Design the sequence.
């Protein structure tokens, strides 16, 4: 089975991920949020274990964390059968 990939500015994305409907992507993002160690992420970005939580993301870090969530969600979608 040949996987056709599309180049992006950050790497390659398999077509299986690009052709995902909205509900699968939303479910993958929910799972991605559950997988993240929020205390460690908060400690790394803000030097405080409680500054960032899955329900409270400061505007300063919002773009970075959304990018992380999207990458984890895309990775989860590549693992699906």
Sequence:
């Amino acid at each position: 089975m040949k996987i056709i990939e599309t180049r992006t500015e950050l790497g390659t994305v398999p077509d299986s991920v690009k052709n995902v409907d909205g509900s699968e992507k939303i479910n993958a993002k929910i799972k991605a949020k559950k997988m993240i160690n929020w205390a460690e992420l908060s400690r790394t970005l803000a030097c405080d274990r409680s500054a960032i939580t899955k329900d409270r993301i400061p505007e300063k870090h919002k773009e970075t964390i959304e990018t992380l969530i999207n990458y984890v969600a895309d990775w989860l979608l590549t693992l699906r059968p």
Q: What stands out?
A: DSSP finds four helices and two strands in the chain. Confidence is low (pLDDT under 50) at residues 1-6. The beta strands are 5-8, 11-14.
